[in-house]
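Model: You mentioned two targets. I'll fold them one after the other.
Researcher: Yes, keep them separate.
Model: Target one:
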Amino acid sequence: MKVTLNWLKQYVDFNWSPEELTERLTMLGLEVEGVQKISAAFDGIVVAQVITRDKHPNADKLSLCRVNDGAAERQIVCGAQNFKAGYKVPLILPGASLPLKAGEKEPFTIKVGKIRGVESHGMLCSYEELGLDPEAIGHKKEDGLLILREDAKVGQPFAEYLGRSGSDVVYDLEVTPNRPDLNSVIGIAREIAALTGNALKIPVIQFLNTESEPIGGLVSVHNVEPELCPRYTARIVRKVKVGPSPEWLRSTLEKVGLRSINNVVDVTNYVMLECGQPLHAFDYHLLKGNGAAPPQIIIRRAAAGEKFTTLDAKERTLTDQALLIADETKAVALAGVMGGKNSEIHDNTVDVLIESAYFKPQNIRATSKKLELRTDSSYRFERGGDVGICDWASRRAAQLICDLAGGQVLGHAIDDFRSPPAPKQIALHFSRTKDLLGITIPHNEQIAFLASLGMPVTEQAPGSATFSIPTWRVDMKREVDLIEEIGRLYGVDKIPSTPPRGALGSNAYDSVYDQLSEVRRILTGLGLNETQGQTLVANAECRVPAESIVALANPLSSDMDVLRPSLLPGLLTILRHNLSRKNHDVALFEVGRVFTNASGQVKEERRVALAITGQRAQAFWSGTDRDAKCDMSDLKGLVEDLLEQFGLRGVAFGKRAESTALYLESAAVTLGGKLPLGELGQLLPTLGKKYDLRDAVYLAEFNLDLLLSKRNAAKSFKALPQFPSSRRDVAMLVPEATTHDAVLQAVKQAKAANLDAVELFDVFRGQGVPAGQKSVAYAFTYRSAEKTLTDIEVNTAHEKVVANLQQQLSAVLR
């Protein structure tokens, strides 16, 4: 919301400096995002009179003039041809700058210089150089200089001649969604009035030129969707003359970022900014009725697939959720969002129908999002407006149109308001104010604060009072809201800070936080970098059953339309971001929450996910393995380290025989062979190509809540061994389907004495190895904590291991 200092002062008296107003608005809860000081638009430009006009000695198309600027005579070289001696024209003096025009970043500054060998001390200006519409200021539009009125005072500042002298300040305010009343100049002025104690000056509406013809003979309203449009008003202004807006209106709108269109449309925009109520003006004669009957305004839903061309000349395809304003032959406006091209105000418009309505915020927001069409109107309607201001805004717009376009207002209007809301009242117990704010504020001051915001007392008792809530304060719902208003006006900065009265020593979440920190410590220690992805992702990226996805009712965009059911889509997006910036060797992890739909109930759980791609290690100048890429073993090793350091025992890896929608090959990770913890695998190359990933990508994801519940947090210490170890190697042929886990299980079941470690150090397929088999080599380490083992003791234990391998795995020693 943008507002100017001078505009605010039209509704409330205050003498704060621009800087002080910034501070005051901030303390009231209005965040000031930007402040732009606008100097008088025509500083350094004065009314001058041409005394003589002679031919330039060195140029046929230039004139050499003597002009009077009110202080002295000066020599000016000019190329215009539409003036003569005695004319009064705008003169920009040396050192001043022309007003900035659209697309310009730096102003053009006038200097004393020579033009074709003759000095020129300033420049006579055209309307184009000044950025003016001459007709809007009552002057003739012609090529050349802007010729001023004969009664113009020589030496008078040009801005004063136009009637808009002085500087102004534009404030860019961030309005919170719960305060739609502050999306208006009057709403902000009301806050200032409450703070200063000065009266709020609401414009008095009085029609000086009206017609007595009943409006029912010209138009009717048929509201098919009262739930989506609880109130609709229609008012007609006849015999208008559409043209440029006066300078004060054009300037006001342009300062806050709106382009002037014509006097009628500009009035609707001005009133919207003034009171926060969006309006729309229709050309009455473009509304069609049924035969000879007068036109009927119909508020209805769009038909599925219905086409409609909005004011921006774009044809839009609507759903049956969109609300339309229509006549009996066609739609004429997209309710609350934008009007139609087929009924817009144009230069030949004579009669105007003013629409002022209240639309259901949820419907306007859904329509705006669906069509990706955001307007000042939809911005206000979707936040919930003031249902009680519709008629006032309509009358205010009609009055201004009459003043600026010379129209006549029909004496009555149509106001379809079937179910006015019951008056809202909230009771306040004054003792609760002290309980919440920690200070004592006299009861009469609390009443005065609320009354200054338009909430008068309707009933009072000892220690309490009941306040009437105006329709523009849609955020006021309970007693604490009243207390918040009291605190704002009293001054948050005046409430002293006090030490806490007590604090809890610990919280149940503390241990969870410590465990999450431990997961992060372990993974960063293993060389991975932590990422933070978006909770909202695109449905197309999820690759999970559609029934398990939690979709948003009103998504911000198609790229953020569901709650993530997995952390992996986010990790893949971050991998692509890194690779697009030439970072090809990436190892990442994320800890976060995911959301799934379980039989209609949203299930939320915490997960941890890993992603690696690229080279296994950074290249070293003398290394021989500098191009080695990550593979599944690297990922499995990271997972094993994580689970082991996290205190989980009995973890098993079971390879899946088939590929999935995400993995080329993958494995399920279970606890004790039964309880699923998560999965890991290699991303399908086709998906990797979609994400522009150059190398193979390996992913893993685990239910972190389950890991936390099953971990063994106990730590034990084991002294370093004092006695030497003995190693025995075994190379054997086993069936191709034999897994490393199966080998370990066979070794474990042998129960060999003093077996300290088992390590796989070679897998071979090829020459000398029969088809359907593979050669694996293991190192077995034996050690006793009490003595040095003899060869007989080691061999006896080792023979049990070999025998069990041969028996259970059909292993053949090589």
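Model: Target two:
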Amino acid sequence: MKDLKNMKQKLYIIGSILLLLIILFFITKDLLFRNKDDIANPYEYNLDQLKKSDSLEIAFKEIKQFTPELDELCGIAVDSSDRIYVSGKNGIEVFYNTGKPEKKFNVNGIARSIDVGNDGNIFVGLDDHIEVFDNDGNLLNKWESESSNSILTSVGVISPDVFVADAGEKVVYHYNLNGKLLNRIGQKDPQHNIPGFVVPSYNFDLGISPSGNLWIVDPGRHLIMNFGYDGILISSWGKTSIGADGFCGCCNPSHFAFFPDGSFITSEKGIERIKVYGPDGIYKYLVASPDSFEEGTRGLDLAVDSQERILVLDPMKKKVRIFVKK
């Protein structure tokens, strides 16, 4: 009886060892000999596929490039005479609409944002404050900083109002032309259904439409929001999507501008592309697909001149690139 019991124990041990060896065999086979298709993550976004855009969808073509001399390119603007202004590290450069250099002047710091008033005065977001220059580069005014944490990423001028986006404080300031602060726009206010901006990085843009409406990007929510000058939220559009009609990833759209009819031109990072949406926020077509840019390009600031040419600041290539409709 005891021998039979010992025999059963031995068989049990042998069976357990064999079972363990079989399991180890299949695990080893699975790890060493599986196909690449078998190890792909079915939930992973394939950005390479997303970046392959249908060329038939692209409605614009690039016609020209020119190269500013600044070491670091940050902002672009156009004045009423179609002169092109480029801001960056320690300087502002001005070009004729052909791309031929006209003038250059120095500033102290990184000029992250720029706009030009109807009177030709140049408003520059320098780190944490605004400086105003005349068209010859003479300093007219230096406004007080609102916060030591301020990072001024966008400025829009529509006389007598000036709007400035602050990525550090996640708010937009409304000034008069002399730098007097009139109010703050976009701070969290549940009573007026304002959620507060989600700004995880320096991508925080604003723009004033041809009809005078103030639009501000909420980059964390992939929205472009319309505010009254009094700070009341009027409307918004945009959706989170990996498709061409939406925005995805962190902090998109990164920049935007307007056509004369109120259509939006947007740029993105992550999936580097430029698109056009109607005044109602409905996607229309591509201006430039991801294969038009070097991988990792960001900071594609935008402007539109009176000929409806789209001016794209490409910091990676250190160029201004001009696109026109086909």
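Researcher: Noted. Anything on target two?
Model: The CA atoms of residues 58 and 273 lie 11 Å apart.
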